Amino acid sequence: MTIPFFESALTRLPRLGFGTWPMQGAACQAAVESALGLGYRHIDTAEMYGNEAAVGAAINASGLRRDEVYLTTKVWWDKPQGDAFRRGFDACLDRLAQPYVDLLLVHWPSPQLDLPSVLAAQARILAEGRARAVGVANFPLGLLRAAVEAKIAPIACLQVEHHVYLSQQRLLDYTRAQGIVLTSYTPVAKGQVLDDPVIRGIAEKHGATPAQVALAWLLAMPGVAAIPKAASPARQRENLAATELVLDADDLAALAALPKGRRLVNPGFAPDWAA
Ligand SMILES: NC(=O)c1ccc[n+]([C@@H]2O[C@H](COP(=O)([O-])OP(=O)(O)OC[C@H]3O[C@@H](n4cnc5c(N)ncnc54)[C@H](OP(=O)(O)O)[C@@H]3O)[C@@H](O)[C@H]2O)c1
């Protein structure tokens, strides 16, 4: 099984990765070790997940070279100013027990976000080689555009919720034009795709599963990566095999016709998504 790569001037990452929230401790370490054993080479964690030590330990126990694994972490939104952001990242690297991460994201935009100073902190971390690329998560289009146009740090990635029930076409038009990868989180809609009659019908036609159909739909889009979370090796293997499922034009049309306004991750501190 070959996982396709996204490649830009700023970063190169497997388009199917592995989400780790909300796994913790030994269970998280076991799940990441299993995922790496099955062939995942892109792992998503964050300060807020409380599992960076477990993720780092799994990478260190895997026997893989550090440069064989693409590792993303994120600094939480309660550090909206450059110095705090930098200190937050120092602690991430300590917990991960890694010399660097491949991608460092701002996890959410705080209402108090001092964007230039946080971007300057990211640029400095890049220059130090402690992150190989930087980007943002949960930024609406206007704020993403501001981050790119500031030209303080080169934005390699936007991570946002994106699945068969939530279109991100407006963001995708921009990220594609800019060569930014759009990483889709909650890609199997937290399991909500499993009982969908349209998705089940497509899955049956291909001898596949609903989760595989949901992931193949994302992977059919240029410039998109997906990071499903699955605790068990069986589901991890199933999701990995979505890279081999090719949807036809009828499938894509049926999936495109599903309602696209269902947002599942919308905490009180979320930005105005239309901004
Ligand atoms: N940047 C952000 O703000 C942000 C926000 C949310 C998530 N994320 C990242 O994105 C990752 C994925 O998002 P998510 O965990 O919210 O949602 P998700 O990956 O869409 O869904 C995870 C849920 O779906 C189940 N599942 C996965 N594969 C399945 C399969 N093949 N068959 C049946 N059920 C399956 C999992 O089951 P099990 O219980 O068996 O594992 C889990 O309950 C997170 O782990 C995290 O790394 C980032």
TrEMBL record:
Molecular function (GO) terms for this protein are:
methylglyoxal reductase (NADPH) (acetol producing) activity
NADP-dependent oxidoreductase domain boundaries? 15-257
Q: Where does substrate bind?
A: 107
Q: Where is this site: Lowers pKa of active site Tyr?
A: 74
User: Catalytic residues per the record?
Assistant: 49
The record's listing under InterPro entries reads:
AKR, Aldo/ket_reductase_CS, NAD(P)_OxRdtase_dom_sf, NADP_OxRdtase_dom
**Example GO biological process term?**
methylglyoxal catabolic process
Family matches, as PROSITE patterns: ALDOKETO_REDUCTASE_1
Q: Does the keyword Nucleotide-binding apply?
A: no
What are the alphabetically sorted keywords of the record?
A: NADP, Oxidoreductase
Tell me which family the UniProt entry assigns to this protein.
Belongs to the aldo/keto reductase family.
Protein name stated in the entry = Aldo/keto reductase
Q: Which species does the entry assign this protein to?
A: Siccirubricoccus deserti
